[in-house]
Amino acid sequence: MPEFELMELLDVGMKETKSAVALISEATSPPCQSARSLLERKVENEHLSGHLPTHLKGLDETLCGGIPFGVLTELVGPPGIGKSQFCMKLALSASFPAAYGGLDGRVVYIDVESKFSSRRVIEMGLESFPEVFHLKGMAQEMAGRILVLRPTSLANFTESIQELKDSILQNQVKLLVIDSMTALLSGENKQGAQRQQQLGWHISFLKSLAEFSRIPIVVTNQVRSQNRDETSHYSFQAKLKDGLQEQTKTYDSHLVAALGINWAHAVTIRLVLEAKSGQRIIKVAKSPMSPPLAFPFHITSAGISLLSDKGTELKGPGINTIHARGHIDMINFHGECS
Amino acid sequence: MEAWRLALSSSIRGKLISAGYTSLSSISSVSSSDLARDANITEDEAFEILKLANQSSGSNSCNGNRSLINGAKNAWDMLHEEESLPRITTSCSDLDNILGGGISCRDVTEIGGVPGIGKTQIGIQLSVNVQIPREFGGLGGKAIYIDTEGSFMVERALQIAEACVEDMEEYTGYMHKHFKANQVQMKPKDILENIFYFRVCSYTEQIALVNHLDKFISENKDVKVVIVDSITFHFRQDFDDLVQRTRVLSEMALKFMKLAKKFSLAVVLLNQVTTKYTEGSFQLALALGDSWSHSCTNRVILYWNGDERYAYIDKSPSLPSASASYTVTSRGLRNSSSSSKRVKMM
């Protein structure tokens, strides 16, 4: 509120208003920390300095340990590429005891499109961590830690996450998976600005949830084709005659991540899964601490595994475009879509 | 000037006006005891009013009795100031060139771009580079990093700090070949120690923090850069009343400008993008609207051009519009390897 108006309301002089505002501001301001203390706290208190390992060596190295705590990580890609498979593996990883590199905690898995399969999760566990899974009762305990929610509407989902906020710490929830965010929003009938606002609320809520409880939140997103009249240029770019302008026109029909640009800004890490000439690739499209690397992968009974731990570095347009060519011919593992 | 414009509490103002003192000239020509008697206020209050009245009329040039306006500087003196202005390097010399040497202190610079283009990277790089000691051509200052989105990854700051120290050591080794190499005193952890990190979780906290910064910086005078990553986030989703939003944002911009001038530091505001329907198609534009776009002194837009990241000076009082390429490496921001593509001027 501007100071003049405050003075009107409270009927005090300028000096008093100024000092009142200053005091209140100081009290409301967030506390100051040095970056160094941030680092030290992370290293001391958090498992693997605040990362959930994906057990994909190349990816974990690039992400400085794994999926980071406290922020939103997005998995985006065309249907059937392996997003849900990836999520299921992560859920497993989080439920594992610390001795085996897990977070030893519960997982809340929000399964909007009924893609979660317990049978598949146990199969992944048996194949990738046989020493653990063959122990008596382990499978049951691990599976028991993964709580699956199937919300029937966005309102339902909103209620559930609000409930979750209060009980996260007590119930040792160490990972939240939302598969998929797009499906949740597409069920609603609102359009345009109202829809943006709804999404906006969820973005703020999820981010603060992640940060407040220091857990990783993994969200999957779908793709859509880019509209003809959409550009990714600024008005001044038309004036800067770089010959490359011509090239970009051929990108008209490629796929982009759904949910819009606001969402794209809000996620901290964006992992894109795509298929190019029959080869599936996972690439780190947005990450504050990694270069844009792409890794080829395939899906086996043990879940997703990288074909090479050495990623190829991507150039500009390759980072943000999503390919789905040559994908329809690929066998869907066990006939299940992911 | 009218008396009701004075910065007084409403009851005192009411008394003044009902006593017949509606213009400044009527107030300044009377003594404090007369004023106290007429308006039914205490002598102290009357004295305060007179002081205020004199201040206000001093800055109003149509009064005529004052030849110099309080607080004005002549352009010649300002030229000297502008030239000796310290600048913070971005570690990318092409970028520094189009910026006239680096991010200027005493100014508010807005940097915007699509997700993933490197805004946070530039923010972290600047908060490390401001600490480069004077012997190496830096400012030897500290940094305030205001994080509204949680994008500050401390591991990345450590990487960049380590690279900075290594570069300084290499430079020392090179320059002092004939002397005993001066060990660089700074260690990466020290650099992290000098970044004051604030995590802002709502727009109320953001406004409160901006108000509080004046006091904080007075107590920590070596802060030379304030980075806000990003100013947009809380204002995009939680604000329903656009008119109020515009007002709050322009006040915030003003406060930042005051801070920049008062403490001679650089303020860097990172902004997001949105799509705007102009000239018959959807185009990218920086978020927060048209009125915000007037608030910052300098504006730099980061964008993709083919394979490379580019920065474009969109708005600046003294620099020509130009673009330059840069890359983000594991060591931070650097020149792109194809800097044979010269800086493009408009």
Automatic annotation (TrEMBL), chain A:
Record's keyword terms, sorted: ATP-binding, Nucleotide-binding
The source's domain of life comes to Eukaryota
Instruction: Tell me where in this chain the RecA family profile domain is found.
Output: 48-223
- For whether the record's keyword set contains Nucleotide-binding, the answer is yes
**Which CDD domains does this entry report, sorted A to Z?**
Rad51B (cd19493)
Protein name, as recorded: DNA repair protein RAD51 homolog 2-like isoform X2
The scientific name of the source species is: Camelina sativa (False flax)
Q: What is the organism lineage in this UniProt record?
A: Eukaryota, Viridiplantae, Streptophyta, Embryophyta, Tracheophyta
What is this protein's gene name?
LOC104786847
From TrEMBL, chain B:
Q: Where is the RecA family profile domain?
A: 84-273
CDD domains, per this entry? Rad51C
- State where the protein is found: Nucleus
Q: Which InterPro entries has this protein been placed in?
A: DNA_recomb/repair_RecA-like (IPR016467), HR_Repair_Mediator (IPR052093), P-loop_NTPase (IPR027417), Rad51_C (IPR013632), RecA_ATP-bd (IPR020588)
Keyword vocabulary terms for this entry: ATP-binding, DNA damage, DNA repair, Nucleotide-binding, Nucleus
- What SUPFAM superfamilies would the database entry show? P-loop containing nucleoside triphosphate hydrolases
UniProt key word ATP-binding: yes
* Keyword DNA repair among UniProt keywords: yes
PANTHER family, A to Z: DNA REPAIR PROTEIN RAD51 HOMOLOG 3, DNA REPAIR PROTEIN RAD51 HOMOLOG 3 RAD51C
Name of the protein in its database record: DNA repair protein RAD51 homolog 3
Where does this protein come from, organism-wise?
Answer: Camelina sativa (False flax)
